[in-house]
């Protein structure tokens, strides 16, 4: 009987990714060419499920009540960790895959297929969880609230970027829609009979600009007017604006949100309009598991990829992976695909480029190699879990 070392198993999963590289590349390009918005990713989720089903994974569709969410599970039948690889696949309005989710989803599927085919010594359970609506709607938040990560020992995914970093923070954020209801009137002949909902929107922006000097450096508030009326000579009876608020932590975000809501209410009171607020789900700040990130970095470097430290300040967005990282050990490393920044036409182009596809394959290999580490070395898994449990006890003392 031959004995395979961890190094041997890693070589095998690398070879599996290389052997199916053309299939994975085609999958990522097809998703890229067919962008679908949040909660509408019918084709994309089906394309990611298909190779997993063909490989013998147990498929659960529409999990958590979300039509485009899924969980694909391979149970080894042997005691061991439950490792989840997360797939994202929603696109951006008018920009397509300008955040590279076609690469993210495909990399996780590729890693899972390589592990099943090339790592016969795998223990525990391997899951690919399809998480829709990262951009707008928070699919991971909904799945987290419904317990889909409660029994998972480690969660991994990758994100394309302009720089390779295994750790990077993520701000807590929440969106809100402000709906102002006024009273229509002819703007020339009887303006005194009107209540301008648009004035309430404008004064909300003015009030927030005055408030900015009182925000701490981590706070970001940005918004757009989505409805400002229908005719120039009619005082708008209805107007609407959408805002996104961010802060370092959920606690800090609550303070910011209350101030922003108070400004909007004050603007409504000044104009005489009535205000309704529709609040979205709260994206939590990210808790990077540094131990797990370190293992991922070692595997990247084995593949010849240089890793750089994250910037000390600025440049931080938000993602619903933050909510998952409050529940279990999680990493969200970034890999460079070019000198491009997310949410731009240039990034969308890079997400379908040869450089982007090559990076996706490297990410798949590193994800699979890190899963091998966790399955083969109980001490490594223990260290990951110990870090998370220590963080949890400090941040959630009542649990």
Automatic annotation (TrEMBL):
InterPro entries, per database record: Amidohydrolase, Bact_exopeptidase_dim_dom, Peptidase_M20, Peptidase_M20/M20A_hydrolases, Peptidase_M20_dimer, Xaa-Arg_dipeptidase
Keywords tagged on the record: Hydrolase
Pfam families for this protein: M20_dimer, Peptidase_M20
CDD domains assigned: M20_Acy1L2
Domain Peptidase M20 dimerisation: 176-262
Signal peptide span: none
Gene3D superfamilies: 3.30.70.360, Zn peptidases
NCBIfam families, per database record: amidohydrolases
Family listed: Belongs to the peptidase M20A family.
Identification of the protein by name: Peptidase M20 domain-containing protein 2
Organism: Hafnia psychrotolerans
Organism ancestry: Bacteria, Pseudomonadati, Pseudomonadota, Gammaproteobacteria, Enterobacterales
């Amino acid at each position: 009987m031959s004995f395979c070392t961890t190094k041997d198993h890693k070589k095998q999963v690398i070879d599996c990714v290389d052997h199916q590289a053309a299939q994975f590349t085609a999958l990522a390009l097809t998703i890229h060419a067919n962008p679908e918005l949040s909660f509408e990713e019918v084709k994309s989720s089906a394309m990611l499920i298909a190779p997993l089903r063909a490989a013998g994974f147990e498929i659960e569709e529409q999990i958590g009540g979300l039509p485009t969410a899924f969980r694909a599970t391979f149970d080894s039948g042997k005691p061991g960790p439950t490792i989840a690889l997360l797939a994202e696949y929603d696109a951006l309005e008018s920009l397509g895959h300008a955040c590279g989710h076609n690469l993210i989803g495909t990399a996780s599927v590729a890693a899972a297929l390589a592990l099943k085919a090339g790592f016969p010594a795998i223990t525990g359970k391997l899951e690919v969880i399809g998480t829709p609506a990262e951009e707008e709607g928070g699919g991971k938040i909904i799945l987290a609230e419904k317990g889909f990560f409660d029994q998972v020992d480690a969660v991994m995914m990758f994100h394309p970027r302009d720089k390779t970093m295994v750790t990077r923070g993520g701000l807590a954020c929440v969106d809100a829609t402000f709906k102002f209801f006024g009273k229509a009137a002819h703007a020339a002949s009887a303006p005194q009979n009107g209540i301008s909902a648009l004035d309430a929107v404008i004064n909300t922006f003015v009030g927030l600009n005055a408030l900015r000097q009182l925000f701490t450096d981590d706070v970001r508030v940005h918004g757009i007017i989505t409805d400002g009326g229908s005719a120039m000579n009619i005082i708008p009876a209805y107007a609407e604006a959408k805002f996104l608020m961010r802060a370092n932590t959920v606690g800090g975000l609550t303070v910011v949100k209350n101030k922003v809501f108070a400004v909007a209410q004050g603007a409504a009171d000044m104009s005489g309009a009535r205000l309704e607020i529709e609040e979205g789900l709260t994206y939590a700040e990210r808790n990077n598991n540094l131990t797990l990130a370190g293992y991922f970095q070692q595997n990247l470097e084995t593949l010849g990829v240089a890793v750089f430290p994250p910037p000390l300040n600025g440049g931080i967005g938000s993602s619903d992976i933050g909510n998952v990282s409050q529940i279990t050990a999680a990493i969200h490393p970034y890999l460079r695909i070019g000198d491009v920044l997310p949410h731009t036409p240039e990034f969308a182009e890079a997400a379908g480029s040869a450089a982007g596809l090559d990076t996706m394959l490297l990410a798949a290999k590193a994800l699979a190699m890190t899963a091998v580490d966790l399955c083969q070395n109980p001490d490594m898994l223990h260290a990951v879990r110990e870090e998370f449990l220590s963080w949890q006890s400090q941040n959630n003392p009542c649990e």
